[in-house]
Here is the input.
Amino acid sequence: MGTVISTRINSLLFALGIFVAIVQPSYGIPAFARKYGLPCSACHEAWPMLNNFGQTFKDNGYQLGNGRDAPIYQEPSYWPIMFRSNPVWHRESNNRQAVDLVPGNPSSGLLEAGVSSSGFDLDGVDVITAGTLYNNISFFIQPFIGNTNITLTQAWVRFDNLLGSPWINFKMGKFELDEPLSQERLLTISNTGGIYYNYFFTPPGDKNTFGGIGFPQLGAEVLGHSGNDETRYSIAVASSNNGQTGLPTNQTYDVYVNFDQAFILPWFGRQQIGAYGYFGEAPTFFQTSGGTPIPGTGMGNRSFYRAGVYAHWYVGSQFDFDTFYMHAHDNVFLGNAVPANQPSKLPPGAVGPSWNGGYIEGHYNPNTRLIFVGRYELVRMEQEVNPSIRPGLGNLDTWTVGYRWYPIMSPRAGLAWLQEYSRISNTGAAPLSGKDDMRDSLLMGFDFDF
Amino acid sequence: MRMISRFVCVLFCTWCSLAAFAQQSHIGKLVGNAKPGKALYIRYCVFCHGPEGDGRGESAPYLDPKPRDFTKAVFRCRSTPSGTLPLDTDLYNTISRGIHASGMPSWKPLLPQERADLVAYIKTFSSAFQEEQPGTPVAIPPEPPSSAESIKRGAALFQSMNCWSCHGKDGRGHGPSAASLTDDRGYLIVAFDFTSGRQFKCGDSDQDMFRDLVTGLDGTPMPSFANAMTPDQKWDVVHYIRTLNNPKHHEVQNAANTQ
Here is the structure.
């Protein structure tokens, strides 16, 4: 008996040894790691989330400044491209879905029931090609190949270090706003935990065409930073099209500003605080032809804004957390989906909706190959669009926990195993009872790039 | 007997580990420690310099020039005489500045404390840092003003000191010896092209160039000229080299040559 146990333990240790030996070389992100030979952990606290070195590299136009930045110094065969995909298994459940009393018979009446589904899944493929066209000219192109379509998530060119100063960099194209915490670099990917809700929130009844600061926008940006990114600012002007090409809505412009400042707190390390604001206008109606809206002729623009403050707090080298606050407001016509030339259609007591939101997200990073993530996010309606909307409708709370383990990350490829659980509770959103609606996501799988 | 030898072995290993983690660096008021430095090294440096610090990281085969081998305790950029250990500040400055035209970027985005910790950990790779003291920093006298005469003298020294044999008569880095230059590990190495306008590896100021002439760049064919020239002569060479990539200075140089 003792021999059998001993043999099994030895076999287990042997297998563990082989496994550890196989997965030992870690670190790396393909597109830039290939170019510079650096580990991906140099730029990422945990891929895809940037650390300060990576943020500085990004702000400097994807240049390290070591005399090897321009493409002419690269191997002719080097092509700065990366593919990313995530095959996963996940389970989604909703505790108050409206379902037919008799399945398949819509006249049988509705009731609320819990519904869940699970299985293997694939979101799509992110293709990222980015780098430098020449010294101090950088670019980024990111098509997303979905299961049924291909979209251009980002495409821009940037002129870096104008006048020889890191304080002036000019970018034009479709780009992610300089968000407090990047939506594109979120560590969690499940259905309910894969977004920052505050970045995309629209109140019940609101028809503002602006989808939120989480969407890449079409426009131009001036960004500046100090040498090691302690002080940063960005000012972006975007067409009021919510990032859609073809000028589908109107000809006005929105403005996004962001400013952040880092400082050293003794014993704790680098801390960063910042403030941001998105101020824009959106059309409330279109010119029509035979009653059909003519694209690009949005009229009756009304204003909206999203603004707030945030901070990245570091407690030593392994633990950090982010705090974020947003206050937002939409004009009464946007909030009630009423054309601005027909004010009489506003419901009695109609007002512009306003709301507050925020999140706190913690990261525990015991080593370069493992990170634990926890997030709580909430949105609270301050003012509903009109009295017919029940107070508090739209409020939401989400909780997300998970971890990512990076067994293989070399300059040519990266692979992460991830598991996460997320829950969102929407106040009063159950379709029939008006009770709180809850959705859960359980996800596990791989996130890999090469 | 075997038990005793095992015990001694374990004791020795433990002592080595403790000694390694006890390694510190001192940069001004900063005190760096090897233990946090190790975590930083694994995050930022290991892929080039290797887990053993021997410059054999996974990216090393694809890098030119090759990453530094810390186990040899030989460093190019020092303020100390040739053949001696660098000061902690020298290593700190190299980490902060990076080495131009190499895979080594500037790590200034890291906190000063983090860079100091990295210095402490890098020192654990060679026992030399426990057995020897760093050299005494070389003195850099005040720089005399550059003049046509100084540049002319520098040009003559550039020839008489055989700088041209590697760097070329016109400073373009293609002297007769350039093609066969290797570093201390046998890898081919390129003589610096002074006309390129590229940054110097160990700092770009005149003082940095003066210091390089005094200390040499250990591990490369660039020798120390500490005793071969007087301080004034070294400044003359610095002034001359400055003219090689600066059009403004060409006029001065030409004027010097025609006198």
Summary: The longest strand of chain A covers residues 105-134.
